[in-house]
Amino acid sequence: MSGRSLVKPLVWTAIVLVVIGSLTAMMLSPYGYLPGDAMVRSWSAAKDRTSSGQDDNWVVGDVAIRSRYDAVTGFGLAAGQDGKKLWEYVPPGRTQLCGAAPHAGAGVVVVAYEDDGTGEGSTPDGVPVKACSNVLALDAKDGRELWKEHSKLRRDSFGDVVAGSSPRLDAGGGLAVVAQDRRATTSTGQKDKGGDVSLRGLDVRTGKQRWAAELPDRCGPDAVSVGRKRVFAVLTCGSGGRDKRAVAEVTVAAFDRATGALEWNVPVDARRPLDPKTVVGIESADPLVLTVAVSADSPGNTGLFISFDENGRPRPTIELDREQGVIQASTVMSTAVVGDRLYALAKYWKKGNHHTVIAFDLKTGEEVWSQGMDDPAAGMAVIGDRVTVLCEWSTQSAAITTMVELDAADGEELDERHFRDEVPGLVGGMYERDGRLVVAGLGGSYPFTAYERW
After folding, report:
1. Which of 177, 294, 344, 375 is most buried, by the most CB atoms less than 10 A from its CB?
2. What are the pLDDT digits (tens) for 51-68?
């Protein structure tokens, strides 16, 4: 047989093998069975019963912690623990957990729970109001109760708890911050002159008060956040008073973290007073970034981000309504701030939900890069120098099956992997631990699940 006649069968054999290999890869890859392209489950914490409430989660040292209405639970991350339940704190009696500091302190988480069978009331609209009045610090390592304090809530003439008078919490390093506004809201949306306000810094491990800040006249805290050097508070301020404020508005103030001394207090909107009924949240403390929600009195406003420099000077704003979609700032895991970059998921509809990841320069307010996702995004986090995005199977399925990693600097896609076992339920957080991706679940299912590259 000639050499030429031998070549033809070999060529066809090679072609057939390539086709078979390609088809095999196409079938194996989406289901997480192709080596170098998959994410496999390492372990899952014990499955929990379904919850319709909001979960909070933290990773502190070797412990992953989940807080929800009925318990705060710690799960082991150290070698050999594989998500084992280490401890659990259950609030006393028939009370429920009703708040939590979004950040953990030095080995401590700070939460709040209700009074036992007392203090229930309702707003003028008939909405039930719970007496969320007990602040509690737990050791992240073993769940020990470190300290507890009872916060007095404002009550109206009928004895009902005034909405919004529950403590606002945050923690960072060795400091816990507890803020309260016990003023009642008038029919015009302003806060009345009665009732007291407070912003206090406590030792996170002992509960001992370090300082009590002097708040600007007729101002009360609505949101707080602990930064590296300062504590920031969004304040709702009434008109008049010592500051001779022309109208009621929302401001943001910076306090020295060590002493509680007021460093500056500026309007959230430098151009016009912001209606006190507008919801303003703190997206980040380092640098300071605020989220201004849609105002009922400004139907054309879709919301925006406002960042500030070290001296309280506002930087250019970033609108939530973008050409690539609308940023869902109130949705869990849709935004992240790292340094002077804001990363966000913008959502749009085109025969189903679609998402674009956008990076902004906070100093200029300009877009740095944007990257469209092939599939709907279920959540995003910045881990190291990468933007990690969890994506759903398709616009017709909410099952989370894909992980995409983008370069945080320029948005270039660095990796795409498929989960062999779909990520269970809704996602409330993502963490990197010993090369594994640890995913926090929401609403029950598995509190924490770890995946590794395969």
Report:
1. 177
2. 766 789 999 999 999 999
